[in-house]
Amino acid sequence: MSKLGTLGARLHRGEIGYDFVKNRRIWYGLSILITITAIVGLAVRGLNMGIEFQGGAVFNTPKNTSVSVLKAEEYAEEASGHDAIVQKLGDGSLRIQVAGIDTGAASKIKASLADDFEIDPEQINAELVGPSWGEQIANKAWQGLGIFMVLVVIYLAIAFEWRMAVAAFVALIHDITITVGIYALVGFEVTPGTVIGLLTILGYSLYDTVVVFDSLKEQTKDITKQTRWTYSDVANRSINSTLVRSINTTVVALLPVAGLLFIGGGVLGAGMLNDISLSLFVGLAAGAYSSIFIATPLVADLKEREPQMKALKKRVLAKRAQQEETSRPEAADEAYAGEPGDAAAAVVGPRNQPASRSRGRGRPSGKRR
């Protein structure tokens, strides 16, 4: 831990660091590849929308039902003719979801399930979700996401500048696309919990991005008054100075989410936890990645297009070239190439000090005759 703290302190002071901005084309290419994979998965497989979005029925059996999940799923699919999702709840009851059925079909399915489970039909609680209501929920979810995006862009444009707002918007789109694509590839059900998870990870991603942007804004106040650093150099230093903090917060956030996803959803079989835990896990990881590798390098790209930053970069590079030229061993020889031989020898050769007239004066052993 002490080594990690020392590393963070050295990164913050700029003593060491990795050039994220210089290698931005690698990160751009990697992000484009992942995004294309997510889009292809979304187009080919599509999203497994829950009944809250496409309508259907939910049947809840009594407590301590003896029928297994696989057997209940088989019964529900035979009775409805549609795919069914069965989850075993903590009290031993079963939650059976069947999408794309109407009210009349729900009554028949309920009676068929009661016969298969050998229980009274009144003991099965049926909840119906109409397709129109599910469509309204989906539309409201998209509207809420759109309003969130607009407010974020406006806030960042006011608090920082429009280039940072654009970079943050691109990073958010990047995170959403990857998360939705993973949902399509894995086949997890999309529920209102998924939407909540998306909004949560977008806020977390913005938090990480704003931390870097705030450091970058502070360090570039008077950047045009010096000739030591370009805007990309300062942007890279901002990333490195907050790198350990970003990694620590991401790991701390991922650990409990991983517990929900892999232990709660995988080992314990609590499938309802998968709805929100997968979006949180993928979104948190993608948000941390985009904050470091996408948002800040993109801001540097946009800023370097400004005339002032172009002129600054030209001055910085010229000064660095001059310093490199004067630091070469051959530079001293070239500087005195036109000087007379005695002058050059006097500079580069050994110098003979004249004998001091007072040498030996004041010494105890010195005798003057």
Q: Would you write up a description of this structure?
A:
This protein is an alpha+beta fold. The chain has two domains: 2-49 and 133-315, Multidrug efflux transporter AcrB transmembrane fold; 58-129, Alpha-Beta Plaits (2-Layer Sandwich), CATH 3.30.70. The chain contains 14 helices and six strands. It has helices at 2-13, 24-45, 51-54, 69-80, 103-117, 131-159, 162-186, 192-219, 231-241, 243-267, 272-303, 307-327, 329-335, 341-348, and strands at 48-49, 56-60, 84-88, 94-99, 125-129, 189-190. Strands 3-4-2-5 form a four-stranded antiparallel β-sheet. The chain is elongated, with a radius of gyration of 34 Å.
The CATH superfamily of the largest domain is Multidrug efflux transporter AcrB transmembrane domain
Mean pLDDT score, rounded?
A: 78
Structural class: alpha+beta
Order of helices and strands: HHEHEHEEHEHHEHHHHHHH
Number of domains: 2
CATH architecture assignment of the largest domain:
Up-down Bundle
Tell me about the largest β-sheet. Answer: 4 strands, antiparallel
The outline comes out as: elongated
Distance between the termini: 75 Å
What oligomeric state best describes the polypeptide chains here?
A: single chain
Radius of gyration, whole Å: 34 Å
Biased composition (Low complexity): 334-350
Subunit structure: Forms a complex with SecD. Part of the essential Sec protein translocation apparatus which comprises SecA, SecYEG and auxiliary proteins SecDF. Other proteins may also be involved.
Pfam families: Sec_GG, SecD_SecF_C
Transmembrane segments: 26-44, 141-158, 165-188, 194-216, 247-270, 276-300
